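Z., the sequence and structure:
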Amino acid sequence: MLGSSTLMAAVTALVFSRFAGRFDTRRLAGLGMAIVALGWLLVFRAPGLAVVEAGLLVAGLGGGWCFPTCTRGWPT
């Protein structure tokens, strides 16, 4: 189950790294972290395993969105 979150983060990071240089770093990192928080909120409030899996996929999406943005470096 946790593997799906990692896989989603890896795929999203590969795809999103092409677009990370075009937008504001702080906003993209904040949006990615908000998506991670939403995913983990879904996991926390899940009534069943299907919703847990969906929450982990959303959290992985946010993590993959945030990772290329954060590794690119903050503007000075």
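The chain has three helices and no strands. The chain has one domain: 2-71.

Let me know what you think.
H.
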